[in-house]
């Protein structure tokens, strides 16, 4: 039986593309979360970059990585502005569609 995933709150978060290695082609980039956490069971508190996001819902405000479920608090305001300027809707990142 697998161990249940830890649940962590992440604030001031944004989704970014991150290379697996320095030579990754753009289409192979993973989507990760970057944001501020307080009670991560291993990392404690601070700004983190997660592992690859495998499930994301802007409606439920939840993201899941290989090891952790993140309750999404307030997103990064500058990132939201960037999305708006570039006519990108947050729900385009949803894996629940």
List keywords for this structure.
97 residues; six-stranded mixed beta sheet; 9% helix; mainly beta
Structure description:
9% of the residues lie in helices and 45% in strands. The mean pLDDT is 88. The protein has one helix and six strands; from the N terminus they run ββββββα. Strands 3-2-1-6-5-4 form a six-stranded mixed sheet, covered by helices on one side. The radius of gyration is 14 Å and the shape is globular. The chain has one helix at 77-85, and strands at residues 6-18, 30-40, 44-49, 53-57, 62-65, 68-72. With 97 residues, the protein is mostly beta strands.
Strand order of the largest sheet: 3-2-1-6-5-4
Helix content: under 10%
Low-confidence stretches: none
Mean pLDDT, all residues: 88
Brief overview, please?
With 97 residues, the protein is mainly beta. Helix content is 9%, strand content 45%.
What's the SSE blueprint?
Elements: E1 6-18, E2 30-40, E3 44-49, E4 53-57, E5 62-65, E6 68-72, H1 77-85
Parallel strand pairs: 1-6
Antiparallel strand pairs: 1-2, 2-3, 4-5, 5-6
